[in-house]
Amino acid sequence: MYILGIETSCDDTSAAVLHDNRVLSNVIAGQEVHRLYGGVVPELASRAHQQHIVPVVDAALKQAKVTKNQLSLIAYTRGPGLLGSLLVGSAFAKALSLGLDVPLVDVDHMEAHIFAHFLVDELQNKQPGLPFLCLTVSGGHTQIVRVEKDHSMHIVGRTIDDAAGEAFDKAAKIMGLPYPGGPEIDRLAQEGNPGAFQFAEPRIPGYDYSFSGLKTSILYFLRDQLKADESFIEKNKADLCASIQRTIVDILMKKLIMAVRDTGIRQVALAGGVSANSALRKALFEAGEKEDWDVFVPRIAYTTDNAAMIAVAGYMKYLAGYRSSLELAPYTRQQAT
Ligand code: KG4
Ligand code: ZN
């Protein structure tokens, strides 16, 4: 089957073509316009999706050497995300499905980040067995998900406030780094000492997370230091980034280790934009060695928002017998699981 995936939940317009679960193309058009504002501006995002959607889908088909008449399934992101952005992708997907008379499958964006593990290409072919635990960490969500034998997903723990990606982005903003801050902190941290500074870690029961206290801790710490030396951030940038990154990774890993020990599920995966983080990947591999887990990280190209993950999620739902009606409306917040 040739599957077209469409992703427009936030600020990346993406289209991908798969042959079953094998990636033939995965085109992503980012939106530079938001950099000026230090964050995603919803109205500008939906306008940019409108401009990008046709050329991006066209490029994905051309790169895959597949014509639209060869498509046998269209998968799109229904939610969660920004309403205006979701509407562009969902309207386009519905119109194309109707015009070509091919089935349509709607996909949940957060589930798709996890389904990215089932994509196959020349560099990614190791798939987790079922059941597995997945730490899904993105700009909007942070959760430990249990993926069952039938691919159904249950949230074991989640953030009660900010997501891990937000913690990276907000810390970067406080330091005056460009948006999105996560990759920037990762890059600058390479040269820094992760033990240079200590920040408050949350004390939250169970498998849930909290990151808002960390943001406040960084804010107050820097405010005090800047009073004494106004070039404190400039002088300590690498150490600050390395220390913030270590704190976020420690917080993420502690609960994950607890969840694996308690559930006895030793197949452990990462997913979502923050799973591109080099320190988090390293920490997962180290925990895997120490705790005797099988660990899985998606290729970097499938960690941040992309349509290949939407297409594979749609493909697997389709194989399980699922079809979407044209009446479905997008949702902006995560559906309860
Ligand atoms: O999954 P994603 O692309 O979009 C959402 O669904 O939210 O995740 C975006 C988030 C942003 O917060 C970004 O700063 C973060 O992923 N991110 C990273 C890295 N690459 C992306 N955070 C830390 N280190 C990275 N290398
Ligand atoms: Zn995402």
Key phrases:
337 residues; alpha/beta; Nucleotidyltransferase, domain 5; 2 domains; five-stranded mixed beta sheet; 9 helices; 43% helix; globular; binds 5'-O-[(R)-(carboxyoxy)(hydroxy)phosphoryl]adenosine; binds zinc ion
Descriptive notes:
The protein is α/β, with parallel strands linked by helices. It has 2 domains: 2-121 and 302-319, ATPase, nucleotide binding domain (Nucleotidyltransferase, domain 5), CATH 3.30.420.40; 132-297, Nucleotidyltransferase, domain 5, CATH 3.30.420. 43% of the residues lie in helices and 18% in strands. The protein has helices at residues 42-64, 83-100, 109-115, 164-174, 181-189, 212-228, 232-263, 278-291, 307-319, and strands at residues 2-7, 13-19, 22-29, 73-79, 104-108, 132-137, 142-147, 153-158, 267-271, 294-296. A hairpin with a 4-residue loop joins strand 6 (132-137) and strand 7. Helix 1 runs parallel beside helix 2 (83-100), helix 3 (109-115) packs across helix 9 (307-319) and helix 4 packs across helix 5 (181-189). The protein is globular and about 65 Å long. The site of zinc ion (ZN) has 6 residues, from helix 3.
